[in-house]
# Entry
Amino acid sequence: MHSSRTRRAILDAAIATSVVAVMGIARGVYSNELMLFNFIMFLTLSQGLNIIYGFTGYLPFGYVGFFGAGAYGFALAVMHLHLPAFAAMVCAGLAALVLSVILLPLLRLSGAYFAIASMAAAQALYEVIANPDLENVTKGPYGVSLSGVFAPAASYYLALAILAVTLMLVVWLRNSRFGMSLQAIRDDSVSASMAGISVVRGRTVAWTLSAVIAGLVGGVFAWHISVFYPDTAFDLSVSIFATVFLLFGGATTLVGPLLGVFILYGVYNVIGIAVPQYFQFTYGALIVLLVLFLPNGLVSLLTSRGIRVP
Amino acid sequence: MLIGAVIAGIFFGLYFTLVGLGLNLVFGVMRIVNLAHGDVLMLGGVAAWALFTSLGLHPLVSAVLVLVVFLVAGLPVYYAVVPRLLRSRDSEMLSLILFFGLSQMIEAVTTISIGATERSLPPRLMGVGPIILFGTRLPKAWFYSAAASAIAVLAVYFYLYRTRLGTLTRAVMVSRDEALATGIDVNMVSAVAFGISLALAGIAGVFAPFIMGSITPNMGVAINLTAFAVIVVGTLGNPLGTLLGGIIYGVSLMLMQTYLSSWANLLPNLLLIGVLLIRPEGLLGRKVRRA
# Structure
């Protein structure tokens, strides 16, 4: 029993490592760096969302709020404190952490209430940052330019490092006592607390972890892209994409979200940019069919037959 | 200025009652969130625009047409999607995603067929000159849409409390399983409620070009957030609550626009989060929702 558990953990870790290695090598082989960076971004975001949705059942529609908080945490630290990029990344993570602590009371809500409330929170933050009255602080709706710290290679590899840490975190959650207790809370919080699991602590940890991941991704996005607008940093489709990738592959697994990103975001990059409306239609139809016929994601084709998916 | 803001807010709020009413009905009866509600509203607006530009039809006539067509169209949509959705493990959550997909499809088809540009209708269609009420000048369109909303609230109330189908609907609202066990055709009742909800959104859409100035294929998301704020502030599943929520929203929006205009867009979001955290059962709710 013990050895099979170890073997599972090693398999999980091997998959995570190879994904990181592939994305690292790809930069040297393939010239479209921005596209690869976006892949890393969504790989990380969908796993970050996996930590909160897959393991605790809370689906924050406003997940992009943490991404935006991170992007602006980074930007404000560079613009006003004149920090170097790595120190500004700490501010990005901190911004998301602070936001997640402020939003902790939202965890009292359940289901659709939580999803919508988190979306409203992200929108509220957007309205504050994009407000023309705050132009002196955030540059309002006119966007920020961080050309002084622009460093495409360094930011790419930092994004890769964040992806690696996030994947390892998911591997740990899938193979640890803590991750198991989170799933127990998700499935039946009353029974879990009876069994001595601290429900509040578990949810809080998962929530802040997934928020900080999104914040770091936002920060590294700000660094890599260096010119952006509040509309980009708080674009609701970031949440939506991450959610759809996660659900398409299958939550709570390691490979599910990876498959979701590689397949769907791959398709998006092939046809989505050329003919956005047809893509949007196909995308919408895919979501509808997915929910109706494969609500537990691609991996459920295997898991429903009793096959364990890493 | 204060009185003006309050009166304008009440009219505006009545319109947003109409916007939220259908969403609330669907949530009350089926416990699902129709994230495509705002897009159905947009379709109503597009229908009014298309009927006016091609046939010269007056929006008030279009409103009646939209009412009938959307009501009937709701039935097959319901049967195609909702019964299957309700059988799933977490239908409330999955409904968000499913209807988001539907909203993307609607948005894409609309953009392909009419383009992404803003469409508007000449304001004179709703009568020239403002209506003056207690010294406040209001566009006539506001008056008509508020009147349509008031009629719609009354009609929904009448339907729910004075007709047999309405009684059955309320039974399903209380407990879907028990209603099923008493032999109520739950799917038929829900399908009609779904159709009514789409019809209400459609009518709201017909007035949207006048209230919001113009319509675009991607207006749905913002409408949804507002509609959700309105029905949560009232109480989910309670049409009178939606009226209260709509008026609170309208009045506070107008006050914000009068005194703190650049922060007015923040309002629906803060209202929504605040009410959810302080009183998740809504202002008129009796039962506390377990969260």
Observations:
- Residues 2-29 of chain A form the longest helix (28 residues).
